[in-house]
Design a protein that fits this description.
By secondary structure, the chain is an alpha+beta fold. The chain has helices at about 10-25, 35-45, 95-105, 120-135, 155-160, 165-180, 190-210, 210-215, 220-235, 275-290, 305-310; strands at about 5, 50-55, 60-70, 70-75, 85-90, 110-120, 135-150, 185-190, 235-245, 245-255, 260-270, 295-300, 315-325.
Length: about 325
């Protein structure tokens, strides 16, 4: 089959892109048009969007890139986007990536930076070889880890898979929470409900740690609000609050896939730290994921100890940098 590669406009491409993404094995929100649009509108900052497509009989790949000087990279920022990759039709990865790379080498760049590539990515497997054939320099480095829990069918099975120490600690924390008062996990899903609760979530986010408060600048908060509401409109947001005696003490923002729940961000009120509301809000969200039949709970980037206490195992995320010699 012959392939054609072209640059496209986001508005015109969006419906086809959504359809293609839905057919992939991992239709993560980080590679969605909604994500790119929200980030680009807030943080483009003079960069040029380079949105490429590969077509055969139909659309088989989308490459959301941006040009900044002599550097071509995935459009976005690894500080807010945990995974990234080209979106390719299942079974067409080799042909699509070969055609795409042949077109990309004609573009004016000295460095091609492909970050956020999860272990097992076809891009990570195929592109270094394609670049090496052309005499280009290739570096593949570990960028971060995304701890994940492969979920069993029941909460009892999940607890049984924890170490004896971690299982005891989780039960002890839940018991102390119940002793502190009436506790429940609130779940918000609709765009209106999520939008109305974002002030509470951002307050909990900022008060939980100083670095989180510094991270949530004005532009970041605008991006965050728009993104979350837009994705809620697509049915991909679960905003949880752990309430104690009716007070929202901790918040957990999750993105929902067909078979997984991704914990994107969280926060808690330090005044309730003695009741372990921070870690328990995450444990209860994980319990909800099991109850809804999810197969994976992804804590996303960062090797915080609580993730491993809850049974997570690392998925490596890599950066592939290709340079003209």
């Amino acid at each position: 089959m012959s392939y054609s590669v072209a640059r496209e406009d986001l508005d015109r491409l969006e419906p086809e892109w959504r359809s293609l993404l839905a057919r992939t094995a991992t239709p993560t929100v980080f590679r969605s048009p909604a994500w790119l649009r929200a980030w680009w509108d807030e943080f483009a900052d003079g960069r040029e969007l380079a949105l490429f497509t590969v077509r055969g009989d139909s659309l088989i790949a989308v490459a959301p890139l941006m040009q900044e000087g002599s550097r071509l990279a995935f459009a976005g920022d690894p500080q807010v986007c945990d995974y990234m990759d080209f979106t390719t039709a299942p079974g067409a990865e080799a042909g699509a990536l070969s055609a795409l790379f042949a077109a990309l080498v004609q573009e004016p760049w000295q460095e091609l930076s492909l970050w956020g590539l999860a272990d097992g990515s076809p891009t990570l497997q195929l592109l270094p070889e394609l670049a090496g054939r052309l005499g280009l320099a290739v570096e593949v480095d570990l960028e971060d880890v995304c701890p994940r829990v492969e979920l069993p069918a029941t909460w009892e099975e999940y607890q049984g898979g924890l170490s004896k120490k971690d299982r005891h600690e989780l039960r002890r924390k839940r018991r102390r929470l119940s002793e502190a008062g009436d506790a429940d996990l609130e779940c918000l899903r609709s765009p209106d409900d999520v939008a109305a609760a974002l002030d509470d979530f951002l307050r909990l986010h900022a008060t939980s740690r100083t670095e989180k408060a510094l991270f949530m600048t004005g532009p970041m908060a605008r991006f965050f609000r728009r993104l979350v509401v837009d994705l809620a409109g697509e049915g991909q947001v679960r905003l949880y609050f752990l309430r104690l005696n009716g007070v929202r003490t901790a918040g957990v923002l999750c993105f929902e896939g067909e078979e997984e729940l991704l914990l994107y961000n969280s926060g808690y009120d330090p005044a309730y730290a003695s009741s372990s509301v921070g870690v328990l809000s995450k444990a209860l969200a994980l319990e909800k994921a099991i109850g809804s039949g999810k197969r994976c709970f992804d804590f996303l980037r960062g090797a915080e100890p609580y993730k491993y206490d809850l049974g997570a195992r690392d998925l490596n995320v890599y950066r592939c940098v290709i340079r003209r010699t």
